[in-house]
TrEMBL record:
<keyword id="KW-0805">Transcription regulation</keyword>
<dbReference type="InterPro" id="IPR011051">
    <property type="entry name" value="RmlC_Cupin_sf"/>
</dbReference>
<dbReference type="InterPro" id="IPR009057">
    <property type="entry name" value="Homeodomain-like_sf"/>
</dbReference>
<keyword id="KW-0238">DNA-binding</keyword>
<dbReference type="Pfam" id="PF07883">
    <property type="entry name" value="Cupin_2"/>
</dbReference>
<dbReference type="GO" id="GO:0043565">
    <property type="term" value="F:sequence-specific DNA binding"/>
</dbReference>
<feature type="domain" description="HTH araC/xylS-type">
    <location>
        <begin position="181"/>
        <end position="280"/>
    </location>
</feature>
<dbReference type="InterPro" id="IPR018060">
    <property type="entry name" value="HTH_AraC"/>
</dbReference>
<dbReference type="InterPro" id="IPR018062">
    <property type="entry name" value="HTH_AraC-typ_CS"/>
</dbReference>
<dbReference type="InterPro" id="IPR020449">
    <property type="entry name" value="Tscrpt_reg_AraC-type_HTH"/>
</dbReference>
<dbReference type="InterPro" id="IPR013096">
    <property type="entry name" value="Cupin_2"/>
</dbReference>
<dbReference type="InterPro" id="IPR014710">
    <property type="entry name" value="RmlC-like_jellyroll"/>
</dbReference>
<dbReference type="Pfam" id="PF12833">
    <property type="entry name" value="HTH_18"/>
</dbReference>
<keyword id="KW-0804">Transcription</keyword>
<dbReference type="GO" id="GO:0003700">
    <property type="term" value="F:DNA-binding transcription factor activity"/>
</dbReference>
<protein>
    <submittedName>
        <fullName>Transcriptional regulator, AraC family</fullName>
    </submittedName>
</protein>
Length: 284
């Protein structure tokens, strides 16, 4: 799957977009765009992919995503309707120097941090959810004022998790960014099945040998190591979110075909065996 570049049209009477979606399931592909995005999930659940991060999401999920950071929400299993509110704006939507003014420096720092993807929780998320739902019914003028107040609330909050701590995509040159986007998009869609080097290398018009050299040069890891890390991140989420699944079931659902190999990779990446990892979380 190739990552989609999403072109976002501004409304003629607004400098940013403020949209509500009610769908049977989230249908946006793995995509990126130059706009900053604040996404609130009002109902639905599944896995959220932001950069190289994989996490569970459910109702109340609030995430700020920086420019050109690939992302998508994937429903899993039977779920209620996918209801979300999405706010999108360019960093300079109020002028190139607007956020450089002293009163807005905390927001400027927030927008810089959003390059890694930020997940807000606790009282901050509760307040933001109420404000976003209120603004949905308000005029364009009051939405703009409300957005600035909302960004200030998020900028001052300590109730935040950084999602893609490596800032991997934010640091890539344009050429590498476009190539790696294709690779990670394909990985995000297909990591639960076998991925052949011949298939992945064709995405960026390379031979398998050239692809392996290129990938390691840019990422400092082999493709197989990166794929295993991605699978283990997914397995970690399953271990914590679904206590009914056995280790064997999680192994196969995460794309591993051999339980002993899965256990070795899990211990190597997390420092714990799968059941230890689950039990540590339950004790905490």
């Amino acid at each position: 799957m190739k990552p989609s570049f999403e072109h976002i049209d501004s409304l003629p009477d607004s400098s940013f977009t403020f949209r509500e979606f009610v769908l049977p399931a989230f249908d946006a592909p793995y995509h990126f765009h130059p706009e900053i995005e604040l996404t609130l999930i009002l109902s639905s659940r599944g896995k959220r992919f932001v950069g190289t991060n994989v996490s569970d999401f459910e109702a109340g999920d609030l995430v700020l995503i920086g420019p050109n950071l690939p992302h998508y929400w994937k429903n899993e299993g039977n779920t209620e309707e996918a209801h979300s509110i999405v706010i999108q704006f360019r960093v300079d939507f109020l002028g190139a120097d607007f956020f450089r003014k002293p009163e807005f420096l905390s927001i400027a720092r927030l927008l810089q941090r959003s390059k890694s993807g930020l997940h807000f929780y606790g009282k901050t998320a509760e307040r933001a959810i109420k404000e976003i739902q209120y603004l949905l019914k308000d005029s364009h003028f009051h939405r703009l004022l409300g957005l600035l107040d909302l960004l200030h609330t998020l900028a001052e909050s300590q109730e935040v998790n950084v999602l893609d701590t490596s800032q991997f995509f934010a640091q890539l040159p344009k050429t590498d960014y476009e190539r790696l986007n294709k690779i990670y998009a394909f990985m995000a869609e297909n990591f639960r099945q076998e991925i052949r080097l011949e298939t992945i290398s064709e995405l960026i018009n390379m031979t398998p040998q050239s692809f392996c050299r290129y990938f390691k040069k840019v990422t400092k890891k082999t493709f197989i190591d990166s794929l295993n890390e991605y699978r283990i991140r997914y397995a970690s989420q399953l271990l914590l979110s679904d206590g009914d699944l056995t280790v064997a079931e999680i192994c196969y659902q995460s794309g591993f075909g051999n339980i002993s190999h899965f256990n070795r990779q899990f211990r190597q990446i997390t420092g714990l065996a799968p059941l230890q990892y689950r039990n540590e979380f339950l004790r905490a």
